[in-house]
Amino acid sequence: MNYILGDTKLFLVVPYKKIPNNNFQSDRIGLNHLAFGVRTVRELKQLEKVLDTAKIKHSGIKIDKYSKKEFIWFDDPDGIRIELYLRARR
To answer: Which string of DSSP letters, residue by residue, matches 36-47?
Structure first.
């Protein structure tokens, strides 16, 4: 699957075979999650619709308590959290 939001492309690939004992764990050393900036709340709402249509469980659009910026997250098939966050204006 791939999704295009503004200038951002996100590709999710289903593996062709299962690799034993290769489960992602967010609390081990290494990758915890991936975050991508989006330009507008409209882009976040578009992504939310795409996730809903694909029946992908997600957080819904939320407001970060520290930055007061909107964001949404979901977990990829390996359990890696993908976060899309409203970027700060320049």
So the answer is: EEES-HHHHHHH
